[in-house]
């Protein structure tokens, strides 16, 4: 089986593995985006329009609230992690797949903890945030030890290495922008250096993702025709 076939099969099975209802989300009419209650229709349209780049929306406690199809393909291990709601810190500290997906796991873990520390200062009465911190603290020493350092920082831009299960290692650049009309929410947009090996890998993933998104569906069997 060649690499292109592996990517096609990966994207097909990933979409079929978790339905919006199983994830506790409302189904979306937009092919690549999963909806959650409370996000404005305008935000879904924005994500859909940004189909050429991986983009997703998260809140201050690192819940990944929505992502376009490209983001869901790039961050498939995070979005497909069985714990719900989808959360970057929960994936990093509780999912065994995180250590393989993030070659620089220690740096990612430190960033997550520092971001959550900053969010506690901004919103100390957020029960969901307190519950998340309690969950991470009681289920392993790794988070608890980092939390005790009291490091506070919001990571709004930078580079991150990923070890994607199909296209291998690549380095992405990300920019985080706060949504002025939606307090506490941020848009994260990812990219790579044009012409690089990272760009080749991302383009390969994007091409198969686009192919699967537009493939006709069999009405009787709900599979690709």
Strand line-up of the largest beta sheet: 2-1-5-4-3
Biggest β-sheet strands, sense, barrel: 5 strands, antiparallel
Helix share bin:
40-55%
Task: Give the termini distance in whole angstroms.
Answer: 21 Å
Shape estimate: globular
- The chain-level structural class is alpha+beta
Integer average pLDDT:
82
Number of domains: 1
Query: What is the CATH C-level name?
Result: Alpha Beta
The CATH topology label is Beta-Lactamase
**Spans where pLDDT lies below 50 across 5 or more residues:** 18-33, 217-225
In percent terms, what proportion of residues is strand? Answer: 15-25%
- Series of H and E elements: HHEEHHHHHHHEEEH
What is the number of helices?
A: 10
Structure description:
With 225 residues, the protein is α+β, with helices and mostly antiparallel strands. It contains ten helices and five strands. The protein has helices at 3-17, 41-49, 69-74, 76-79, 88-94, 98-101, 105-122, 127-138, 141-147, 197-214; strands spanning 55-59, 64-67, 157-164, 168-178, 185-191. A five-stranded antiparallel beta sheet has the order 2-1-5-4-3. β1 (55-59) and β2 (64-67) form a beta hairpin. α1 crosses α10 and α5 packs across α7 (105-122). The longest helix has 18 residues, at 105-122. The protein is globular. The model is unreliable at 18-33 and 217-225 (pLDDT under 50).
Please outline what is shown here.
Helices cover 44% and strands 16% of the residues. The protein has 225 residues and is an alpha+beta fold. The chain starts with a helix and ends in an 11-residue tail after the last helix.
């Amino acid at each position: 089986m060649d690499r292109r076939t592996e990517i096609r099969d990966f994207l097909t099975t990933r979409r079929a593995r978790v339905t919006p209802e199983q994830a506790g989300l409302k189904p979306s009419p937009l092919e690549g985006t999963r909806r959650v209650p409370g996000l404005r229709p305008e935000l879904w349209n924005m994500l859909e329009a940004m189909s050429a780049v991986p983009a997703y929306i998260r809140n201050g406690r690192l819940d990944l609230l929505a992502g376009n199809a490209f983001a869901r393909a790039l961050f498939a291990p995070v979005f497909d992690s069985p714990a719900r709601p989808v959360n970057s810190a929960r994936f990093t500290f509780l999912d065994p797949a995180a250590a393989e997906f993030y070659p620089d796991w220690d740096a990612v873990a430190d960033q997550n903890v520092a971001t959550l520390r900053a969010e506690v200062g901004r919103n100390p009465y957020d029960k969901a945030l307190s519950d998340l911190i309690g969950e991470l603290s009681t289920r392993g020493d790794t988070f608890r030890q980092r939390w005790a350092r009291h490091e506070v920082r919001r990571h709004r831009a930078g580079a991150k290495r990923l070890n994607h299960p199909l296209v291998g290692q690549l380095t992405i650049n990300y920019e985080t922008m706060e949504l002025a009309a939606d307090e506490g929410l941020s848009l994260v947009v990812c990219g790579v250096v044009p012409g690089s090996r990272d760009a080749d890998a991302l383009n390969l993933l994007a091409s198969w993702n686009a192919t699967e998104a537009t493939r006709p569906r069999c009405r009787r069997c709900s599979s690709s025709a």
